Amino acid sequence: MEQIIIHVDMDAFFASVETRDNPALRGKPLIIGALPGERGVVATCSYEARKYGIHSAMNIKEAYRLCPNGIYMRPDIDKYKAISNQLHEIWNTYASAAETIALDEAYLDVKELARDLDGARRIARTIKQRTRDELGLTCSVGVAYSKTAAKTASEEKKPDGYFEIPSAKDFVDLIIDRDVRVLHTVGEMTAEKLHAFGIRTVRDVQERQETVVRLLGKQGRWITRLAFGIDERKVTPYRPQDAKSIGREVTFQEDVNNYGLLKDVLVLLALCVEHRAKRHGLHGNGVTLKLTYFDMKGITRSRSVPDCDSADAIYQEAARLLDNVEKRPVRLVGVSIYNLSGEEGRQLTLEDYFAEARQQRNAEQKRLLTELQTRYRLDFAGHLDQIYQADTLHRTVEYMRKHS
Ligand SMILES: [Mg+2]
Q: C or N terminus of the chain, fewer CB within 10 Å?
């Protein structure tokens, strides 16, 4: 095997932790997420709750309808993070590289230590054993020749499962008649698109490659390769020192000494950064504000902000940073996010579970834009998406400067 990859995934993580810490919850349908009566979704639920048809991401109202006698709890993210750190310590012992996907999930490159499938099997068993002994929790582990196959393998025998997929042929044999959703990156929307063209299974993808590529472009090429078991992606550990950033900046035609205007420009820059980050499926874990003063002296100010990917969050932080700099005429202003990680590596925040928080954020974003439009008599309605283009952004900013 060219690569030997383990995918490890904790079973019903949040729910298992709560049950471990409070044995009275054992054997009961336990739903972690929003509480009944709140707007929001299920984060994780116990296997007993799944018997009622409840699953993660389900609307809490629907969950309550299905299981009014369940035990509903809010997630204790700090506690889960601490346990996640302990898990990573175990995982890192056996991996030459570990790639975190979520608090409770990671890819491990074990080729070096395992050497062969037997070795990988031993490592998998040890990880499961140590997780049980040291943390009182169970996990499911998949061993395979590729990342996609490893993830499929860990899902195969959940909970407390173990499964291996040594070759591309084994992988294809296993999934050939399954729904296209089994292929990495195929979510509900992509699946619907494919279904609409009668492409329902992996076999359909194999047989109608051209249609898939025509429908989905680059993603289509990726999933046709996957349908044949081809996935050469490496386990890439997320290390802060690897981080690059995504940013936008503008230079003014005349120096700006109006810090109110600068703050307003930050709104647009934050929108551009959000747009670019979303397009690449990335989010940052910190925000940087960059200024060049009229005398060409440049400064940057940064602050770490976990999981920031919304224009609102980026703007708020950049504006706070701007409040604290020396107020001199400015020639250039820029905003960026750094310590990037992929959507997969995104750590869940409370906002993911509470629709209310998300709606509030969107409303806040809208309010900021409306304010800008009124203040500078701009009309974004028609061309907000054009603002992402460099020349439109510059023109708009210049327009704002002149009308400030
Ligand atoms: Mg899990």
A: C
Task: Specify the 3-state DSSP secondary structure of 361.
Answer: helix
Q: How far apart are CA 58 and CA 295, in angstroms?
A: 55
Cα-to-centroid distance, 386 and ligand 1 (Å) = 40
Q: Ligand 1 centroid vs 8 CA: distance in angstroms?
A: 8
Residues 6+ apart with CB under 8 A from 14: 32, 43, 44, 75, 76, 80
Domains of the chain: 1-165 (3.30.70.270), 173-227 (1.10.150.20), 240-402 (3.30.1490.100)
pLDDT, one tens digit per residue, over 112-133 is 999 999 999 999 999 999 999 9
CB 260 within 8 A of CB 333: no
**What Cα–Cα distance (Å) separates residue 328 from each residue in 255, 257, 265, 365?**
9, 6, 16, 28
Average pLDDT, rounded, for the chain: 89
Of the candidate ranges 58-72, 233-247, 293-307, the one whose mean pLDDT is the lowest: 233-247
* Tens of pLDDT, residues 134-145: 999 999 999 999
pTM (two decimals): 0.65
105 noted as active-site residue:
yes
Distance 363 CA to ligand 1 centre (A): 32
Cα–Cα dist 383/389, whole Å: 11
Catalytic residue among 105, 164, 274, 317: 105
Scan for tokens 């490659």, then name that residue: 209
Task: Report the distance separating Cα 23 and Cα 7, nearest Å.
Answer: 28
